[in-house]
Amino acid sequence: MRATLASAAVARYAGRFVWLELDFDKPVNQPFIARHGVTFTPTLFVLDPADERATATKFGGLTLSELNQFLDQGERSVKARTSGPATAALARGDEMLGRNQRTEAVAAYREALRLASPDWPERNHAISSLVTALSAVREYQACAETAAEKAPTIPRDSTFAAIVRVGLGCANGGRPATWAEAAGKILEPLAAEAVALPSALRDERFQLFQQLMYAAQTRGDNATVKRWGEQWLAEIEATKPADDDERSALDIARVDAADIMEEPARVIPALVASERAMPNNYNASLRLAQMEKEAKRYDNAVAACDRGLAHVTGPAARTWLLEIKAEALVGKGDLATARRVLEAALQSAQTIGTEGMRENHIRRITQAIAEINGQP
Predict the structure, then answer these.
(1) Cβ–Cβ contacts within 10 Å for residue 203, how many?
(2) Is 208 helix (H, G, I), strand (E, B) or coil?
(3) CA–CA separation, 209 vs 214, rounded Å?
(4) Neighbour count for residue 357 (Cβ, 10 Å)
(5) What is the pLDDT of residues 36-75, one digit of tens each?
(6) Quick check: 157 and 205 in contact, CB under 8 A?
(7) What domains, with CATH codes, occur in the chain?
(8) Quick one: which of 104, 52, 117, 152 has its CA closest to 129?
(9) Alpha helices in the chain (DSSP H)
């Protein structure tokens, strides 16, 4: 997203917007993160400077054209809160989503679609927002079924790709339930269409690969998992990163693909090269440590964790690195040291500002300590 924001095509917004970037893991930013319900990156908002009301909200990245639409939409909502009942409901949904009032956002998006005329220009945006909000509140059946109903008739563009990706993710999360299988049968071929769209954002396409692999994995279709994984890795390797942010994003995708394919050693050389290129970036060390551990190269994993810990910027990353280190130590059979590392991880986890993330880490670490304590 930084490269998109730096594009000359965005220059026309100079003087109309003030850009603010916040590190998700730094403690000083946690009040804002919690207030707006940010659970992953990137998350983008247009905020009304008068009251910090979110006039546009987007989970995930945007293409340049989508960014222009997003900013224009946010600006319109700041200047004029209503321009028809459907548009007003849509703006209310974006505001609720930006306030972390996700159930209320779902209701507002549904109201917008109920009130809209058949030719309402914001219809597809509203569908995408509704599906995303349904996923956020874990209404997976409604999310998958809404996507399966609406996506087939939507023009094949980046909004179509986003709806299909979120909907297939919800269906995958509900398998093997009957409703999930039915929605998946509609959404999987649409996802195969979406992943080939030139208009789809690369990050969106990568997530589509991931969901297609998950769908095949749930069926035990290893050949299809392999086919999508090979295609995904080929695209990753063909992409020359423009900067360290892009390199990190590609490494995350590498790890995801290799993890689903259960081929961790395959991506280790590329991750080693990334760590050398970004020696002060804890993310590079973390991703390498993940794959070294999965490849059962435990000493290498511990060393990568220690390098990452030397540059970590916040408690969530510190906790994650300590957990990986402890898992590698367990793999080596050094349970006493693993227990001490997990105790340090637990202390770190207790300082994570985001409640859901904090509780997930604490639960996972507590279980890992209990398992070590139960071993002879």
Answers:
(1) 17
(2) helix
(3) 9
(4) 20
(5) 767 667 777 788 776 677 777 777 666 666 677 777 777 7
(6) no
(7) 1-137 (3.40.30), 140-216 (no CATH), 312-376 (no CATH)
(8) 104
(9) 2-5, 30-35, 64-79, 85-98, 102-115, 123-136, 140-150, 158-174, 178-194, 202-218, 222-238, 244-261, 268-277, 282-294, 298-309, 315-332, 335-349, 355-373
